[in-house]
Amino acid sequence: MKQFFKFFFASVLGFIIGSFLLLFVLFAIIGGIIAGSTSEVEVTVKPNSILHVNLDYDIAEKTNNNPFEDFNFSSFEPKITPGLNDIIKTIKRAKTDANIKGIYLECGMFTSGFATAEQIRSALLDFRESGKFVVSYSEVYTQKGYYVASAASKIFLNPTGLMELRGLNSQITFFKNMLDKVGVEPQVFYCGKFKSATEPFRYDKMSEPNRVMVADLIGNLNNYMMQRIADGRKLSFDEVKNVSDNMLIQASSDALNYKMVDDLYYTDQVTDYMRKQLKLGEKDKLQLMTVNKYRRTADGEKKSLDDKKIAILYAQGEIVDGKGDRSEIGSARLIEQLKKIREDEKISALVLRVNSPGGSALASDIIWREVQLVKAKKPVVVSMGDLAASGGYYISCGASKIVALPNTLTGSIGVFGILPNIQKLMNEKLGITFDGVSTGKYSDLGTLTRPVREDEKLIIQRGVDSIYLKFRTRVAQGRNMPMNLVDSIAQGRVWTGQQGLANGLVDTLGDIHTALAIAAKLAKADKYRIVEFPKSKDNGLEQIFEMLDEETNEEAHIKASLGALYPYYQQLKMLSTIKGVQARLPYELYIN
User: Which of 47, 97, 237, 534 measures 20 to 30 Å from 400, CA to CA?
Assistant: First the structure.
């Protein structure tokens, strides 16, 4: 019997070890295959090629080169979706590439932010200055998608397709009545009359200051969008505004009649149009090259290793304590990158690319400090994306220079905290009660199982006030602005980048290339190389293990599963996961 168990356990151990080794080898083989299929093998651009720019997905700031992120195991095909950095880069390169004759644009279902749309739109207009064409086609144009398409030289819509142009709307979801019914009382502490992050949990409709702010915000964004569309279509502002305000486009023929599109075509007719532009023969093949393929072609620009380096550090997502995941700005993770940049003597300047609604006030202040340490050694220029509000502005305000897009959402200088009281839910709804013993009067301060006492409210509010004062002080010092002026533009109010330029929150309007030019000038770098942080993982096995990180991918899976319901999940999640005082955008601001 002893011999039996000896052989049995030896067999089990051997099976486990063998299975592990087999799995390891299998991953290595898969990694090798995918690495080979997605490696940076140089691609040749054939003459008379067209760059195919498809924007119908949620565009990240930076390309994630891990092919396992969206790997389709059924077809065994890796999928890498280009980030904004590579989309802009390829369009700029294509402008001077003699083999690229035009761009075929698909952006009808564009879902990213307005500032992202603005940057791509500007790149397309710049491309057209070369004399090359930009053709846009879609079966359906959402309003934001049409805004991007209005930069094209020709816009085509499917004959039975749809097009939106109806003005902007911002809708906020309120949870107060639901929380009342389930017995949860959000106990709120905030600073700033516009700091309405907690309104969805306190009220069942917008407060008047909040309504004024949002109306002003979307009014400015809408007028800017209408003017840009008018410029693109060679129409007057009033003509476009009239079409939008009265929703005159109700069928595809209306879009043509009001000169919003150039013709109603099917895809084969669009193909024929582009073939005619290239003067192709009947047997000549139309060469379409995707952004992913084109970014693997040689750019022809020689960079000397002796050139100075300018770092671009991408900070995208909600600001959280600790490492966070890839969709968040984790203070520990970002500080690690900032330290690398600070200690690298070959890096002459930093462009910090911020796209964030804010988050943890503590994490924001820790990141702010590290940015100041970098600034003490080299210039730091902030480039704002769709959002750089509240905590996003906190980490930006101490930079050497701040650059924003006209339709960036920024400001929101204010803080808040929420402490849910679940006593009624537990006692009356679920029949659960709590009891305990404390050594001091405030030993259980912060508990969720009873209401906050009046003396405790004073303690918590004092902490919130202290952080708000620190936030305003950081802005006053970073922007060289008197405190009374900071007070007048703070109060939690959200501003557009255009408004931010007028009130002193930003230095100039422009995109990340504007920020790079300013950084190069401050660093006195006539020639420089760009290095991006965080650096992509190129090793196949590292990419596999990154994919298998459950914590990292959890949010992406939830977003994919919930679809249009994801914003509501985010707001409820915020109530349950808030730790400490928050410096974040007043609410989940969805503008469409």
Answer: 534
More confident residue, 78 or 140: 140
Rounded CA separation 421/419 (Å)? 7
Q: Is residue 345 located within the same domain as residue 493?
A: yes
Q: 457 forms bridges with which residues in the sheet?
A: none
The amino acid at 435: D
> For the chain, percent helix, then strand, then coil, each to nearest 5?
45, 20, 35
d(CA 466, CA 309): 39
Provide the number of structural domains found in the chain.
Answer: 2
Any idea which residue has 């295959």 for tokens? 33
Q: Which residues contact 149 (CB under 8 A, 6 or more apart)?
A: 105, 107, 108, 136, 138, 141, 155
**What would the pLDDT profile of 41-72 be if each residue is shown by its tens digit?**
567 899 999 999 999 988 999 988 765 555 55
Q: For this structure, is 390 an active site residue?
A: yes
How far apart, in whole angstroms, are the C-alpha atoms of residue 421 and residue 141? Answer: 45
Q: Which domain holds residue 88?
A: 49-166+247-294
CA–CA separation, 589 vs 592, rounded Å?
Answer: 10
Instruction: Given the residues 49, 122, 136, 390, select the one marked as catalytic.
Output: 390
Rounded mean pLDDT of the chain? 86
In this predicted structure, what is the pLDDT of residue 315?
Answer: 96
pLDDT at 299 over 70: no
Catalytic annotation on 488?
no
Exposure string of 209-229, with b = 16+ CB inside 10 Å and e = fewer, is bbeebbeebbebbbebbbebb
Q: Are residues 274 and 366 in the same domain?
A: no
Please give the torsion angle defined by the CA atoms of residues 388, 393, 395 and 400, in that order, rounded to the nearest 10 degrees. 100
Q: From residue 439, give the alpha-carbon distance in Å to each of 436, 447, 449.
A: 10, 15, 18
Do residues 425 and 369 both lie within one domain? yes
Instruction: Note whether residue 14 is domain-resident.
Output: no
3-state SS, 265-322, equals: CCHHHHHHHHHHHHCCCCCCCCEEEEHHHHCCCCCCCCCCCCCEEEEEEEEECEEECC
What lies within 8 Å, CB to CB, of 391 at 6+ separation is 319, 356, 357, 358, 359, 360, 361, 363, 364, 582, 583, 584
CATH number at residue 347: 3.90.226.10
Burial of 557 (0-12, 13-18, 19+ CB in 10 A): exposed
pLDDT at 398: 97
Q: Given 154, 195, 241, 375, which residue is catalytic? A: 195
Three-class SS of residue 330?
strand
Structure tokens at 442: 């405030």
pTM: 0.85
| Cβ(209)–Cβ(493) below 8 Å | no
